[in-house]
Amino acid sequence: MSNNKIIKGFSLNGFERFHPGEAEAVKRNTSIVEMEMPELKEGEILAETLYTAVCGSDVSATLSKPNFDWIQRPKVIGHECSARVLKLGPGNHGSLRVGDLFNPVAQLGCRKDDCPACRSGKWNLCPDKIILGYHKNGAFGQQMVLESDRAVPFIEGLNPEFGAIVEPLSVVVNAIYSKCDIKPGMDVLVTGCGIMGLMAAELARAAGARVAITGIEQDRNIRLKAARERNIATIVVSPSKNLLTRLNAGVRDRQGLTFGRKGKVDLLIECSGISQALAEAIYAVKPEHDICLIATYPDEVKLDATQVTRQSLNIKGVMGSHKEHFMVAQKLLVQGAFPAAHYINLYDFNHIKEAFADSIQAKTTKAVIKMN
Ligand SMILES: [Zn+2]
Ligand SMILES: [Zn+2]
Predict the structure, then answer these.
(1) One-character DSSP codes across 97-114
(2) Domain 7-154+339-370, architecture per CATH
(3) What pLDDT digit, counting tens, does each position of 251-274 carry?
(4) N or C: which terminus of the chain carries fewer CB neighbours within 10 A?
């Protein structure tokens, strides 16, 4: 253990409200702090964070969106990371050893015998789950103390930089594997081109679908460009040319063919977190088809429920992920099913505020911080 090293962390402090895109939020609501690592309790480990990714939720929390008011401040945030075991605390840690590389699961369940979610291993659905970086200090600290139960050891061939995005990818794996019944040849519409949207688009296409992804004007040159370079059709929506107008006019895929049938698609995966985007997009889904929600929303969504009834639509939510999804995500990264290098932008810890500002302004597809 490094005794004299000053351990730094990126801390969320403020509750000042900012609009999407306002990078000023980083200055006002966050700071770099020096950390003292607490003594290890039963079942805990000390870990060195290697690479930590900036999540859309971290961005929303920095902007102080109301759906993140529940996070107590100050808090060293961060929950998407690769890490190395520095020290094992008292108690049993299974096969985990000092030096092992791992991903911590973001959501740790209560693990009580009478909790149905935990009994089935679905900690993400436990009512008393503890989220790394929100309920307790997380992966934007250069070191962290966490329960060894969270550790999902690296599989062979996974590099730590790509390992930083196992957690978000695992959530999309949960969506694609458990909620979206994708068959080859389907037309899948992904709304929102943050990393969740881009990952959903990639995995839907890997499952054999033809995919289109939406964004706004400011996404054209970075996030949608990244999608276009991967042969995913892109749709820029605006108040004057909304999604339905664009689909009805005939969106072209990368071969110049019309995407969707008469403006309708087989599956909608909503990743924008914008209420209006969801409210509108449900009209683009074919009868008896699925709408899969990965996002959360800062306000109440006004949804045409009669449309859901009359078109016999299925709305399915996806909350986080559990260990099984992590293991699949690791495999997809090693095999290249998700091309991590295409989407990751690397920053040093010294530039973490810049990474957050760039993330807020959508100047990066996925910011990953080299923590030490
Ligand atoms: Zn996340
Ligand atoms: Zn539980």
Answers:
(1) -TT-EEEE-SEE----TT
(2) Alpha-Beta Complex (3.90)
(3) 999 899 999 999 999 999 999 999
(4) N
